[in-house]
Design a protein that fits this description.
By secondary structure, the chain is mostly beta strands. It contains two helices and ten strands. It has one domain: Lipocalin (Beta Barrel). It is globular. InterPro entries: DUF3833.
Length: about 180
């Protein structure tokens, strides 16, 4: 009986581990171009994104317009979303403070606790919890949000939406500075 229980726990551990995503930020520290979050977002940004469910089906398709500004040690992002498929929040305002050693703290109206961000050279990771409305329900989820610099004017954002540590959906957004 004890051996069967150990075997079951091993199988469950392997299964759950296979369903999660783990990116090592240290891998991106020396890659170029460097991603300076405040420099990139201190402008007008246009983004195009999709949300995919666990099966890979596209359940949302959207455009986001971002007006960013830096004042002293704070980056303010005013986001406006329009959806071609699905629905979601229409606006969000982020306030992001630069901390010590490449660390950042972010707040937004629909984020349940301060977001924690870390810069890794070419990449930036933001982790936060959100009450995510889906239809008439609200789900408490965690976001593992990764930004990667493609060039000086373009970044790619890949977000993993997790519940109980398992990836439930993925968001992919390409963002570009607008002249």
């Amino acid at each position: 009986m004890v051996n069967k229980l150990r075997y079951l726990l091993l199988v469950l551990t392997i299964f759950i581990g296979g369903c999660s995503t783990s990116i090592e930020g240290e891998h991106y520290v020396t890659m170029t171009p460097q991603l300076d979050l405040f420099r990139f977002f201190d402008s007008q940004i246009k983004g195009w994104g999709i949300v995919q469910d666990r099966s890979g089906n596209v359940i949302q398709r959207f455009i986001v317009d971002i007006k960013g500004s830096v004042k002293q040690n704070e980056l303010v992002l005013h986001e406006t979303f329009s959806y071609q498929l699905g629905e979601g929040p229409t606006t969000r305002t982020w306030r992001i403070e630069r901390g010590q050693n490449g660390e950042y703290i972010g707040r937004a109206n629909d984020i349940t606790a301060p977001a924690r961000g870390t810069s890794f050279g070419n990449a930036f990771n933001f982790e936060y919890k959100m009450d995510l409305p889906v239809g008439d329900d609200i789900y408490k989820v965690a976001f593992d949000d990764w930004f990667f610099a493609m060039d000086e004017q373009t970044i790619m954002n890949r977000s993993y939406i997790k519940k109980f540590g398992l990836v439930m959906a993925e968001v992919t957004i390409f963002m570009q500075q607008v002249d």
